[in-house]
Design a protein that fits this description.
Layout lengths: L1 H25 L3 H27 L3 H32 L5 H19 L1
Amino acid sequence: MLVAFLAALCMVAVDVVSTVMVQAEAANRGWLAGLMDTLGWYPSIVCTTLCVLALDGHSVAAKVAVLILVGAANLFGTKLGQVLGQRLMARTGKRSVEDRLADLERLADLERLAAR
């Protein structure tokens, strides 16, 4: 059970940095994206190793625990990464996709009004 718990913690870390990496890429923040990619590799390889050890063993309970806990870690780690990444991008002056889309929609409305 300890192996499953540690693998789940590693997966949360992987998902957080991977989600921030994607947000950084979308915001054209190449150095931040590269840093997140590099940092994500370490917990990723540990998670993979722990999962393989548990899934290769003879304990069905350990296998089920790994599948359930790492699966849940994927879900919650990605959401946590999205929230943290959104805050990080806001602090660095980068606007969210939603904000940029709203600005484009306002510009389109202004162009329609000007054309009338």
